[in-house]
Design brief:
- By secondary structure, the chain is mainly α.
- It has one domain: Orthogonal Bundle (MetI-like fold), CATH 1.10.3720.10.
- It is elongated and about 70 Å long.
- The two termini are 12 Å apart.
Length: 270
């Protein structure tokens, strides 16, 4: 019951965030449409919303829309994959459950200082928002997918490493301790002693992070990181509001499908 309530909370947070993004885009477009007008009247609202219809359904536009939707999902998936590869070893290294100095009750200054150094760097990664990092990377490597992926990886590594540490340290330490005392490496102790206890928690957290990565990739696309976000940003600049309508509908279905896929994976593995 606790896991289900946690899932509902995460799901509600994800959908609420997407709704806020949609609402912010509509407000931004309306501001650009009426910024020269000192007195906004009802007819301005009618004219503004009439520009969203009829929605764009041409073949070339739909092909481009599907292409950008795939780019958005790819950015989120690749970012999560890279972040996991980096974060999981860091989580194992920072975990007290798998720490040799804790298990053998011997102080190791090198290990302690290394842990402090890693935690400080991960704290910095968690502090800077993805949007700020993306803007900096775009200045360095230019517009495109690479800036979006790198900005998500940097921030997600900070959050995911901390989460993995907490998940690992919440397990029963005795199986991993016995394995390490018998000469097993820390990685193997995690695989055979700790992972069986926390595999469901890790899977659930990775699914949630994938949903967050999709949301983040949409936002980063607006600043030039590619995908649907970049397409909607171009449409707003051109005041092609009928295209904006089509993109918003596509975003809704994309979020809905991702949400259903996440629910299916949780049902099977969690």
């Amino acid at each position: 019951m606790k896991n289900y309530n946690s899932y509902l909370l995460k799901r509600t947070f994800f959908l609420l965030t997407i709704f806020i993004i949609f609402l912010s885009l509509i407000i931004l477009i309306f501001y650009q449409f009426t910024y020269e007008s000192e007195d906004i009247k009802l007819k301005d609202l009618v004219v503004f919303f009439s520009l969203f219809f009829p929605i764009e359904t041409s073949k070339n536009f739909i092909v481009e829309l599907l292409k950008n939707a795939w780019i958005t999902i790819s950015i989120a998936t690749v970012s999560l994959f890279i972040s996991t590869i980096i974060s999981l070893p860091l989580g194992i290294a920072l975990s007290r459950t798998l720490s040799s100095s804790v298990i053998y009750k011997k102080k190791n200054n090198i290990e302690s200082y290394s842990r402090i150094f890693l935690r400080l760097n991960l704290l910095i990664c968690r502090t800077i928002p993805e949007l700020i990092i993306a803007l900096l990377l775009i200045r360095i490597i230019g517009l495109g997918v690479n800036a979006g992926v790198l900005s998500i990886v940097i921030v997600f590594t900070g959050f995911m490493s901390k989460a993995f540490v907490e998940i690992i340290d919440s397990t029963n330490p005795i199986p991993a301790e016995n394995l390490i005392k018998n000469g097993v490496s820390r990685i193997n102790a995690f695989i055979y002693g700790t992972l069986p206890q926390c595999s469901k928690d890790i899977t659930s957290y990775l699914i949630f992070r994938w949903e967050c990565a999709i949301r983040t990739s949409l936002v980063l696309g607006i600043v030039g990181a590619g995908g649907l976000g970049q397409q909607i940003e171009f449409a707003i600049k051109m005041m092609a509001l009928h295209e904006v309508s089509s993109i918003l509908i596509a975003l809704f279905f994309l979020v809905f499908l991702c949400d259903q896929f996440s629910a299916l994976v949780r049902k099977v593995f969690c």
